[in-house]
Amino acid sequence: DASGQSSELLDDYEEGTWTPSFVGSSSESGQSYSTQDGTYVKIGRMVHAKFRVVLSAEGTISGTYILITGLPFNAASSPVAVHVNNCYFVSLGVNVYSVGLQLKENDNKMYLWAVKGANTSRVYLANTDLSATTELGASVVYQTS
């Protein structure tokens, strides 16, 4: 360029869609959705992913954790336990103050956690915390491996 400094060219740019779903840490079956929308932009190793998912039938979700799966790229292995954002949420099966997302390292999933009361610690959501019409949405930025 005119300043005599070299400039880098953007050679790793990608846009696309992905399909968010609820899964359990052990298993899941019988879910159906009225909405499963996800988009992403990837620049280098950085991924900006947005999603909205709405259940029309909860089905059976088993295990200690509920996760959102389907991210377009696996998260990096480090740092661990990365909180990526809070969610917009409607129609949970319990009262909560907030719902957050935590990346699962080396995977395309995010754990769901919540704060259920004043002056309480966060807890991971379990199958009893969803309803047949739960809706979640968020925008997350993370680094892929």
Write the layout of secondary structure elements.
Elements: E1 13-17, E2 21-24, E3 27-29, E4 32-43, E5 46-57, E6 60-62, E7 66-69, E8 83-86, E9 88-90, E10 98-103, E11 109-115, E12 123-124, E13 135-143
Helix and strand run: EEEEEEEEEEEEE
Structural class: mainly beta
User: How would the global form be characterised?
Assistant: globular
Radius of gyration, in Å, reads 17 Å
Tally of strands: 13
Largest sheet: 6 strands, antiparallel
| Overall mean pLDDT | 91
Straight-line distance between termini:
32 Å
Alpha plus pi helix count: 0
Helicity range of the residues? under 10%
Low-confidence stretches: none
Fraction of residues in β-strands: over 45%
Question: What does this protein structure show overall?
Answer:
There is one protein chain. By secondary structure, the protein is mainly β. Helix content is 0%, strand content 51%. The chain contains no helices and 13 strands. The protein has strands spanning 13-17, 21-24, 27-29, 32-43, 46-57, 60-62, 66-69, 83-86, 88-90, 98-103, 109-115, 123-124, 135-143. The strands form 3 sheets. Strands 2, 7, 8, 10, 11 and 12 form a 6-stranded antiparallel beta sheet that branches. It has a 5-stranded antiparallel beta sheet with strand order 1-4-5-13-9, with no helix packed on it. The chain has a two-stranded antiparallel ribbon with strand order 3-6. The chain is globular and about 50 Å long. The two termini are 32 Å apart. The mean pLDDT is 91.
